[in-house]
User: Fold these one by one.
Assistant:
Number 1:
Amino acid sequence: MNAIEVRNLQKSYRSIRALREVSFSVPQGELFGLIGPDGSGKTTLFRLLTTLLLPDGGEALVNGMDVVRDYTRIRREVGYMPGRFSLYQDLTVEENLRFFASVFGTTIEENYHLIKDIYSQIEPFKNRRAGALSGGMKQKLALSCALIHKPVVLFLDEPTTGVDLVSRREFWVMLQNLKQQGITILVSTPYMDEAVLCDRIALMQEGEFLQIATPTQLMADYPETLWAVRATDMSHLLQELRRTEGVHSCFSFGDTHHVTVDTNRLTCVGLAEHLTHRGFSEVSVAPVQPGIEDCYMLLSQQSKL
């Protein structure tokens, strides 16, 4: 049985269609990622699957239970970590954890083995108020509270947003460990570099799925020729590349611009000569392997055609 089954799920807020007939499934024990910018529908989908919102249409099952008919059962069997820190900031670390354990009729001692690897990192600060914790420590406390009742499915809505890079890496190591325990994890993120850490990902835009695939397969299926271009005056370089014949698309990517090109009309050397002739110096043009962000930008363009 799949841990999550979604068929033609829909949700609107007045005239805004937040979710447009989304369908997908997540096998038990999979780490599944929702990848997309703010406003793409990730949070709405999480709130529907955790029974905090009612869908306008379609069907969704979590661990075989319907999100509308079986909402009380679902709430007992899933863990949910919302994007915004939502624990009681005036309570201490330990008080928060004991409270959430009691809500689900359990204790810290009974299920300590579930959170030991995570909670042990913040246990030395168990008497500190949650509001005084750093971003990374708040993240670990929220995850511990979401796990204390031994959920079968864990929903994490942008858990690493606003957290430092080291804490982000530690958090994903924790997720991999939880997956090894058989917990199904649905996680959303706006960070494309985190997408490669999932078993499968769904790229989202404006309430729709652009594509579902493994990160490796998504990048392997990239159909365009991709080059990285660098020169002086990068802002003017972006405009010039978008005007150049043979360039299909151009987007800023770190300290370079990634361009897709028609190789029947352009070569790396030819493009470099063209840019030098147009007054740019220190020009560099080289082939580059596509990443998840390149795949997202291409699919996003294609969906608007």
Number 2:
Amino acid sequence: DQIRIETIKPLKTTINNNVKFDEDKRYIVANINNTRAVFDKIKGVFSSICCDNKEYFVAPMQYNIWRAPTDNDNGIKEQWLRAGYNRAFTKMYSCKIIDSCIVVKFSMVSNANRPIMDIVAEYSFDEDGRLHGNIKCIRNKEMVFLPRFGIRLFLDYHMENATYTGYGAGESYIDKCQNSYFGKFSATADEMFTDYIIPQENGARYGVEKLLITGEKKSMSFLAEKPYSFNLSHYTQEELFKKGHNFELNKSNYTILCFDYFNSGIGSGSCCTTLDSKYQLDDETFEFNFYLKVK
């Protein structure tokens, strides 16, 4: 057994008003210290982050609500697919710079479906050059609960080393962690991959308070207001969903990081039982508050 004697400390947000912003019709470029970040106003995400002339993103970041369904998601998978969660994208309404913050309003939508959720996201930088994200969400309660919510980053292939403080050492989920313990762990993306015969969501780590991703003389660290979940892999969720057998899988040319506010539980749907509501991302409103630092 474990007894926690210290809890996660609240994040202190101090906005740096000395950030230099350059803006055109498509992009906002923020320059602070040795960091340059490019924000795509059409997609509502950062498409590039450079530090000391080193690029960290292979592709633009994404807001992520999908995962490759597990065997236990069979009872809910069809509802997720009908809701369009696997093909969701952002529909932008506005993007402005307000008091040194990039403020965007948009919806997560999919073709031929009702809007999935409305989002207001604010991005700013502190004195140390850390990116602070505050994402406020209002979900369409008439739709089925979400598989997950977070951001997905596409990093250089060699940024595959994770050091984290959370539940390990193996994969852990909100309802699948009784064989885990809280501590500090290190592993590579390949070591965290769980090789199921039928490819599916795997390898997440639950209850994480600190995360550091390193490789190729680059590092990226994450903190959040509340414990979060993450997954580091060389396989995209699309690849895991598309292939029927593990021997058919093809690795990506990059490392994929899913940094999640919440990843719904695994449950036991393969035995025809419904995932307990306390393990579902079914809240009508929620807020994801985090820091990202590159160096």
